[in-house]
Structure formats: structure tokens, C-alpha cells
């Protein structure tokens, strides 16, 4: 070891002969120096230190210290304290001002320590399982525990870094750093000189990423009193912080608030760096030279002089060493510098010792566990499994992508490696059982609601891969529930980050993630279905946790543009569960509603598991249950009395003038017409109302010729009309009727609180959308030549929009503002009133479980006419399918034009549009009218029950004549 600077060795050593002094230096294995303290560890595991504070006459006297039977492995010095690590990973602290100097054991919850770092008055320790403990002063936030946390002499867990795989910790005078395995630099503490590299001089009380270093692959950090140096994988050195002595190496004494490359060292690959209090060392192995810069008052630069150096220069005192020895490592302290040399090249050019790395899982370790689990090594294997699988940090560090540089928009986890590793582990049940128990009992409960950075989220991607190979294990249910609970405990910003990571997963892994939660949720629900309700409340609690995570994955899938098909989320057991409750005796209905069925309807909070049919079933059944709950009271109706010729006017007047409860079932009565409304009359009412509203569209709607769709128009029209229109539309939904107002999907997105996009404008107004798409696709230099400004349809999209030209830089903002104006700004009052009316007209809020397209299909029906389904599902009363009259009917029906078939549909149901499910859900019944002289009668349709009363005609010609006349004038031949 070579050393220079202020009192690097005691006087007794200096007075020895050169040979004796060399022997003493060779016997030293580790050294550290603080502002007032220099400490050494000898190769026999004992140590001594020199304390320069207090009585200056004592500063030359070395004071020995030991750890008893244990050996000292590491040490680090603060201003007047020394932190020691034993060979067994135990940690001790020695106060240099106390006499005798006896190291005090510190409690780190029996964690094995692999690294330590001391600032002037604080200390940091990194454990084998990746946890960071801090203690000492916290006046500037150097403990990273928050501004309000007081200084402490007891090590405290730095919880914000608990799940991040760390490579190294470092400490300066009053600031601290941590380096992740992927090269992210985290800083906290005093920042008065910019020593945190954040571009300001504000102290940080929690670890924060140094974003300016994200592009660099940092491999080492060293701190001085008020400056910091970092070394990249490519051998570049960046420095920042205080520069008054030239310690930054930039040929100036200016402070640097941002990391700045040391240009004088550029071109040669730096192998190691070390910072003293006000100086910096750098070792270039290819040149076999150590360079120094900064303060030289105490000779710490090794130049033979005591002046400062503003640029890194070779250390002159090592000229002889360069020729005869190889440099192993360099160290700098308060005002000292140390170089460890060897006659033989034994030290690899690396700044991170392999024994300093946190525990991680690799293929070699897996092979050992699987092959030796039945041998005497089992106890050792159990300890290793417990170490790795109880720590999120260790797991996160086990499956990092090779050469990955952590960036906010990139995934650092190698999921293929994780999948392969767990598949190997699953081959040995004994090992897998131990892994499962550790994960369930220790790892998952330790996961924190707050996660710092994207790297800490890795465990939330890794554990599902473990759950994937555990699907046949009984413990998989317990782990799924515990893991789902951990996900749902995450604070909203952390959960949002996880969801963003999910959205970026490759489709294969995203589908696998969904399958894990889908499988477990299905099992829970199956158990609920096969047990009495009173026995399955626990399973219900388990189910709601896992299905809530499944719902979040579903929402991520939607936002990501449907990475996988919606059917991957559907759980068919929901229908079984619903049927199970419906089979219970009606007398138990009220108890059922109170104890169970309402929980079944709570499934609407998780629409991802419901296909369209199930959603419709739940929506309708919920309304029936609400009516059933009022069974002890006279059933009231929401009555409307209208004339066909003035239907819309009559309706608006009654809705406006007559108070009503929209939760009561609708009953429509046409003036001077016979019929009781069991649904068919209501459907016909809404069909006619829709037609009349279309004829009134110039006052309320803008009609788009290119799409044949309508949108609201703001022309000073009575806003109450939009409210009543919303009421009418909501009533149609509440009463399961189709009402096609030719709105785009955008309306239903807005009702559901989903933002509209350019694609929605493309549906409503293809011409406008095409122009905007062309604008985004235009050559950048051509955009300005279009002479556009921030206006649309004569209105400013933003304040002073006419004065803001559209350029290649703001064209996306222009397009977004244009879409926002069309769907929101221009019709805000009209839509708000419509939306309020819609919610009033449909008091069953379960409609919110539908997706926009599903809600649109429910309300407007569809036009996928598969006419063969009508005959396939037809039933007969007083007829047989082989009867001549029935055969003639279907022959005539086949001859009909498409429009005539639609007229028949209106004739039978009150609407020419199909309900959800199409014609397969329309169960037509053809009944014999049983007339004495059938040839003089026309067919009659019961729209409420889809029954066609068909006289038994004597010939196909008479059937054709009567049938065609009936569907041509269908409004006159229907009955309720």
C-alpha cells in the first residue's frame, strides 16, 4: 500500500526503516479516512486508527480495536466514528472520542451486511438481501427518511429503496447515494453545492433519481465532502458539486449543479475513482497511472507540492510503483490518498467486488437446489431460498435484462428468464414448496404501498410467473390472494406506474398474467356457486380481491388498444352463479336479496368478467329485483298517454309537467287504441319517437351526410329539451327498449366518462378526420404552408387561437384541441343536460358496467340480420313445422325483399332493429288463429310476446296476399 497526505500512518511507523514500513503497509488489507479519523484493517482481521480531534498531542498515537474472535472485513470512517463489518456480516460502530475504544454492535435485524459508507455524521449499510439501513444525523435529509425524521443512533430501514436491486451505496459529508444494478443513480441529502447533480441547490429528504445520468451506465459512485464523482461502464468520469479547489477536474473552481464529463480523462478508459474531502483520484489501468486533482494543501495529490490542481494529473509519488507493481485499488479519505499495489496482477479491473453484490438467483443455484435437495445440503439450500425469496430486491435483481439500461419507458425484467427459471424449480416439489411458503409468509407481506422507481415494480411481474407454474398447487390460491392484496395496497401513483408497465408487456406475457388471475378468480367463483351462500363468504372476499386485479388488467388492455381479446377475461361461472340464486324458492327471495343476490350484482363493478349476454341479464334482473323488493306495495307504473300523430309533443309535455318516478316500469297507451303494454307497445313508442326526433334534428342536432350520424348542436335551443331528450333515452334503456337516434359511439363514451379521440371524429365526420390525419402525416416543412391557426368552425380552440399558427411542433396539440372542441367545448351545456336527463330516466346505474360499444348496441340494436336464425328458433302453437300452412309461410318469407323482412320485424317487435344477440334471441311463435273462415282474416302480431297469429289459409297465394298487406300497414295489425 502506498499513501500520502495528512498523517496517513502513525509516527511509530514513520520512524521505522523503509523495509519495516513497507512490511507494515503490506500487512494492511483495508483503509478508510474521515475528516478527523484514519483507520486500518490488517490482514489478521484486527485494526487500529488514528484520531486527529481532541488533544492534538494524542493524534500520533494509534489505538487498536478488534471484534473478539471475529475478523474485521470492511470499515468506513466518518468524522469521529468508524463503522465495521465482520466476516459474518455483523455490523459495529466505534466512537473515536471514547476511551477505551470498544466497537458497539448495531441491530440490523440479523441481516448480513455487505457494504458500508460513512459521511461526516451519518452512516449507510447495504445488506445481502438488498435492504439499506441509515443512522446518524438527518439535518439535511442525508438519512433519506424524510424531513421530519430526527437524527438517530439506531439503524433505520430506508423503506423507499427496500424493493430496488442495489449495487452500491456511497456517502459524502452530508449527502448520500445509491446505485441500482441497472445503473440508475439515486441521491438524497445536502445539496448546497449541487453535489446531488439535480441541477439545483435544494436538499432532498428522500432518494430521487438523477435523471441527467439515465443515459449513462453508471457502475461506481464516490463522494467527497461536497462533491461527487461517478464512473460509467465505458470508463467515463462525471463530477458535480463544489469545485472551489478544482476537485471536479474541469480546469475551474466553479461549482457544477449538473453532472459534467471530465474532459481531461476522456479518451482513456478510467477503471476506478475515489473522492477525498476536497480531492479526486482516478486510475487508468491501460496507462497504469493514477491521476489526481483538487486540494493539495496536505500533499494529498501526491505531486510533491502543496498547491491545488484544477485538472487531473499523474501522481508523481507512484512513478516507481508504476514500473514495478500493478495497482489493485485506490482509496481517498479526508486529506489522504491510498493506493494498494501488488507485484502480481491479481485484481480485475472492476470497481465492484463480487462479494459485495446482493444475493440473486441464477441457473447454477437453481441446478444446485434441484439436484441436492435430498442431501445434507438441504439446510443450506433452505437458507438460500429464504434469503432470496424473502426479498423483493433480490428477486428484482435476479431477472434483469443483460446490459439493460434502466429507462422510464423500458422494462428491466427479463420475463423469459424468470419463466424458464421457475419452470426448472417446479420440477422439484420439495424446493417449490419451500419457495411457496417463503413467498407467502415473508415476501408478499413485506411489499410496501410505496415503490420508488420502475425497478421496484419488477417483483409484480416476476411473482405472476411463479404463480403460473403453481396453478396446480394448493398454495397458489393463498399466494394469488396475498399478491392481489399487495397490488391493491399500492398508492395510486405507484399503481399507475405498474399499470403503465403492464401496458408495455409483450402480448404473450400480458396474456399469461391475465390467465393467472382469471384462473384463480374462476376457482373462487366456482366454490361460491357450489356452496350455500352462508358457507362461502370467505371465498367471496378472496374472489373480489383477485377479480379486482383482473379488472385493472382489463382496463389496461382497453387503454393499450386491446392487446388481447376481451374473451380472455370472461368468466362463464357468473351465469352459473346467477342461475344458482334464481333456482332458490321464491319465498326465500327477500332473504336472498339481503344476503346474496345483491353481492352477485356487485359483480357489475368488475365488468371485465361479464360477456355482453351476462351484462344484459344482470342489468335486466337487477331492475326486476328492485320491483320485487316493493312486492308488498301496489306496483305503480310510469304512465304515458300519447297520440301517434303528436307523439313527441305529447311526450315532452307529460315529462315536463307530470312528476314521475322513473324507477317504475313504463306503461304506454296510444290514444283510441286497444292494448295493454307488456313491452311491445313501449318498443313501438320509442321507435316512433326516434323517427320524430330525426325529423326535428335541425333544431337540436347537426346531421353529417358523410356518416349519416347526428351530434348535438348549440344554437340557443332550450336546454331543458336536451334534458328531456336524455330522460327519454334513459327510459328506453331502463325499459329494455331499442331507440336508435343515430348517435356515434362518442356519445356513449362521454356518458361513461371515457375521453373521445380522433377515431371518434372519424366515425362522426370522416371528411374532417381525414384532413386532420393528413395534417399529422404531412411533411414537417409543408405544415406551415397550410396557413392554419388554432380555430375550428369559426371558433378559437384556445385563447387567442387566431394568432397562433399551426406548426410542425404544435400540430398534435391542434388536432387534440379540434377533437375536444367538437365533442366537448362546443356542446358542453347541451351534453351536460342530456347526461343528467339520461341518469334520471335510467335510475339503474348498473348501465355503467357496459363498454361504449356495448351500451350503444343495447340502446340502438344491431342490423346483423341472419334471417335463417328466425326460422331455426321459431316455435309453434296448434301447428307443426311440417304443416302446409307453415311451409307456405316460410316460402313466402323467403321471397320477401330485405326491407319487407325488416317491416315484418317491426310488425312483430315494434322495431326493425335487433336486440343484443340478434335474431337468435328473438323466439318467434307462430300460433293458429283458429278462425272459422281463415281466408278473410289478416295475420295479427302480439308485439309484447313475439307471437304471430296466423290463420290457416287455404292456399299459399291467399297467405301471400294477406301477409304482405299486414306487414305493409303493420301499425294497424299489431296488438299488445
Automatic annotation (TrEMBL):
The opening ranks of the lineage are:
Eukaryota, Metazoa, Chordata, Craniata, Vertebrata
Query: Could you identify this protein by its name?
Result: Probable E3 ubiquitin-protein ligase HERC4
Q: Which gene encodes it?
A: LOC108936639
HECT domain: residues covered = 654-976
* Cellular component aspect of the GO annotation: cytoplasm
InterPro entries per record: HECT_dom, Hect_E3_ubiquitin_ligase, RCC1-like_dom, RCC1/BLIP-II, Reg_chr_condens, Ub-ligase/GTPase-reg
Q: What stretches of residues are RCC repeats?
A: 130-182, 183-234, 235-286, 288-343
Pfam family membership, one: WD40_RLD
GO annotation, biological process:
protein ubiquitination; ubiquitin-dependent protein catabolic process
Could you say which residues form the signal peptide? none
Instruction: Please name the catalytic residues of this protein.
Output: 944 (glycyl thioester intermediate)
State any single GO MF term: ubiquitin protein ligase activity
**Domain of life here?**
Eukaryota
| Species of origin | Scleropages formosus
Q: Which UniProt keywords apply?
A: Repeat, Transferase, Ubl conjugation pathway
Amino acid at each position: 500500500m502506498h499513501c500520502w497526505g495528512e498523517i496517513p500512518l502513525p509516527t511509530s511507523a514513520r520512524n521505522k526503516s523503509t523495509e519495516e514500513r513497507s512490511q507494515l503497509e503490506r500487512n494492511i488489507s483495508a483503509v478508510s479516512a474521515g475528516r478527523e479519523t484514519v483507520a486500518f484493517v490488517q490482514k489478521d482481521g484486527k485494526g487500529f486508527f488514528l484520531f486527529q480531534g481532541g488533544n492534538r498531542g494524542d493524534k500520533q498515537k494509534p489505538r487498536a480495536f478488534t471484534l473478539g474472535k471475529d475478523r474485521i472485513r470492511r470499515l468506513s470512517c466518518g468524522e469521529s466514528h468508524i463503522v465495521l463489518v465482520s466476516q459474518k456480516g455483523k455490523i459495529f460502530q466505534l466512537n473515536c472520542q471514547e476511551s477505551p475504544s470498544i466497537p458497539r454492535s448495531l441491530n440490523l435485524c440479523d441481516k448480513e451486511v455487505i457494504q458500508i459508507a460513512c459521511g461526516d455524521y451519518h452512516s449507510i449499510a447495504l445488506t445481502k438481501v438488498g435492504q439499506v439501513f441509515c443512522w446518524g444525523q438527518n439535518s439535511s435529509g442525508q438519512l433519506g427518511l424524510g424531513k421530519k425524521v430526527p437524527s438517530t443512533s439506531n439503524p433505520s430501514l430506508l423503506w423507499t429503496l427496500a424493493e430496488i436491486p442495489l449495487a452500491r451505496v456511497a456517502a459524502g459529508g452530508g449527502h448520500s447515494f445509491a446505485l441500482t444494478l441497472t445503473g440508475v443513480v439515486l441521491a438524497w441529502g445536502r445539496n448546497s453545492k449541487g453535489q446531488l447533480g439535480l441541477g439545483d441547490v435544494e436538499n432532498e429528504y428522500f432518494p430521487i433519481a438523477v435523471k441527467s445520468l439515465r443515459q449513462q451506465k453508471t457502475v461506481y459512485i464516490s463522494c467527497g465532502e461536497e462533491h461527487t464523482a461517478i464512473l460509467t461502464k465505458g470508463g467515463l468520469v462525471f463530477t458535480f458539486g463544489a469545485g472551489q479547489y478544482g476537485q471536479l477536474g474541469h480546469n475551474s473552481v466553479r461549482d457544477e449543479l449538473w453532472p459534467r464529463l471530465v474532459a481531461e480523462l476522456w479518451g482513456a478508459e478510467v477503471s476506478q475513482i475515489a473522492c477525498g474531502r476536497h480531492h479526486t483520484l482516478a486510475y487508468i489501468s491501460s496507462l497504469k497511472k493514477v491521476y489526481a486533482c483538487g486540494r493539495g494543501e496536505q500533499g494529498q495529490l501526491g505531486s510533491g507540492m502543496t498547491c491545488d490542481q484544477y485538472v487531473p494529473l499523474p501522481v508523481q509519488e507512484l512513478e516507481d510503483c508504476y514500473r514495478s507493481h500493478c495497482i489493485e485499488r485506490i482509496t481517498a479519505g479526508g486529506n489522504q490518498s491510498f493506493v494498494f499495489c501488488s507485484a502480481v496482477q491479481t485484481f480485475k479491473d472492476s470497481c465492484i467486488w463480487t462479494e459485495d453484490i446482493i444475493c440473486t438467483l441464477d441457473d447454477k443455484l437453481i441446478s444446485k437446489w434441484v439436484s441436492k435437495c435430498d442431501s445434507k445440503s438441504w439446510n443450506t439450500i433452505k437458507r438460500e431460498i429464504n434469503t432470496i425469496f424473502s426479498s423483493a430486491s433480490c428477486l428484482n435483481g435476479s431477472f434483469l435484462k443483460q446490459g439493460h439500461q434502466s429507462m422510464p419507458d423500458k422494462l428491466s425484467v427479463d420475463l423469459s428468464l424468470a419463466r424458464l427459471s421457475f419452470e426448472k424449480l417446479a420440477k422439484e416439489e420439495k424446493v417449490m414448496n419451500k419457495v411457496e411458503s417463503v413467498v407467502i409468509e415473508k415476501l408478499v407481506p413485506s411489499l410496501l404501498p410505496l415503490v420508488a422507481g420502475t425497478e421496484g415494480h419488477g417483483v409484480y411481474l416476476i411473482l405472476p410467473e411463479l404463480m403460473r407454474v403453481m396453478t396446480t398447487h394448493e398454495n397458489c390460491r393463498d399466494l394469488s390472494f396475498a399478491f392481489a392484496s399487495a397490488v391493491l395496497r399500492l398508492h395510486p401513483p405507484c399503481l399507475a406506474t405498474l399499470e403503465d408497465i403492464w401496458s408495455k408487456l409483450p402480448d404473450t406475457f400480458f396474456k399469461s398474467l391475465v390467465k393467472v388471475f382469471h384462473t384463480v378468480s374462476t376457482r373462487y367463483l366456482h366454490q361460491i356457486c357450489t356452496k350455500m351462500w352462508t358457507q362461502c363468504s370467505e371465498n367471496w372476499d378472496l374472489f373480489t380481491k383477485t377479480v379486482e386485479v383482473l379488472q385493472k388488467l382489463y382496463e389496461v388492455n382497453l387503454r393499450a388498444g386491446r392487446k388481447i381479446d376481451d374473451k380472455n377475461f370472461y368468466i362463464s361461472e357468473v351465469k352459473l352463479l346467477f342461475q344458482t340464486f334464481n333456482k332458490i324458492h321464491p319465498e326465500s327471495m327477500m332473504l336472498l336479496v339481503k344476503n346474496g343476490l345483491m353481492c352477485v350484482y356487485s359483480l357489475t363493478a368488475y365488468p371485465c368478467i361479464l360477456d355482453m349476454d351476462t351484462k344484459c341479464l344482470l342489468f335486466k334482473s337487477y331492475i326486476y329485483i328492485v320491483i320485487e323488493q316493493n312486492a308488498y306495495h301496489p306496483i305503480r307504473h310510469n304512465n304515458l298517454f300519447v297520440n301517434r300523430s303528436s307523439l313527441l309533443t305529447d311526450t315532452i309535455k307529460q315529462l315536463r309537467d307530470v312528476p314521475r318516478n322513473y324507477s317504475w316500469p313504463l306503461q304506454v297507451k296510444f290514444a283510441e287504441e286497444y292494448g295493454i303494454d307488456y313491452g311491445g307497445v313501449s318498443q313501438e313508442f320509442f321507435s316512433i319517437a326516434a323517427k320524430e326526433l330525426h325529423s326535428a334534428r335541425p333544431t337540436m342536432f347537426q346531421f353529417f351526410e358523410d356518416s349519416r350520424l347526428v351530434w348535438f348542436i348549440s344554437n340557443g335551443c332550450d336546454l331543458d329539451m336536451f334534458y328531456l331528450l336524455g330522460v327519454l333515452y334513459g327510459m328506453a334503456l331502463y325499459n329494455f327498449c331499442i331507440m336508435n337516434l343515430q348517435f356515434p359511439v362518442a356519445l356513449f363514451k362521454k356518458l361513461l366518462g371515457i375521453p373521445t379521440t380522433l377515431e371518434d371524429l372519424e366515425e362522426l365526420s370522416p371528411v374532417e378526420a381525414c384532413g386532420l390525419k393528413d395534417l399529422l402525416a404531412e411533411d414537417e416543412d409543408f405544415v406551415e404552408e397550410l396557413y392554419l391557426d388554432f380555430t375550428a368552425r369559426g371558433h378559437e380552440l384556445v385563447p387567442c387561437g387566431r394568432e397562433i399558427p399551426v406548426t410542425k411542433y404544435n400540430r398534435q396539440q391542434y388536432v387534440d384541441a379540434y377533437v375536444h372542441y367538437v365533442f366537448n367545448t362546443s356542446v358542453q351545456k347541451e351534453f351536460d343536460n342530456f347526461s343528467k336527463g339520461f341518469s334520471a330516466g335510467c335510475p339503474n346505474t348498473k348501465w355503467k358496467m357496459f363498454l361504449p360499444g356495448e351500451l350503444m348496441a343495447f340502446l340502438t340494436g344491431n342490423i346483423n340480420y341472419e334471417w335463417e336464425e328466425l326460422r331455426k328458433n321459431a316455435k309453434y302453437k296448434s301447428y307443426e313445422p311440417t304443416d302446409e300452412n307453415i311451409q307456405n309461410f316460410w316460402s313466402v318469407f323467403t321471397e320477401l325483399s330485405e326491407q319487407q323482412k325488416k317491416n315484418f320485424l317491426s310488425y312483430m317487435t315494434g322495431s326493425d332493429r335487433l336486440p343484443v344477440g340478434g335474431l337468435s334471441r328473438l323466439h318467434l311463435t307462430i300460433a293458429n288463429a283458429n278462425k272459422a273462415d281463415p281466408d278473410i282474416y289478416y295475420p295479427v302480431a302480439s308485439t309484447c310476446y313475439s307471437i304471430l297469429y296466423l290463420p290457416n289459409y287455404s292456399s299459399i297465394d291467399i297467405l301471400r296476399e294477406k301477409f304482405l298487406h299486414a306487414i305493409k300497414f303493420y301499425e294497424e295489425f299489431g296488438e299488445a
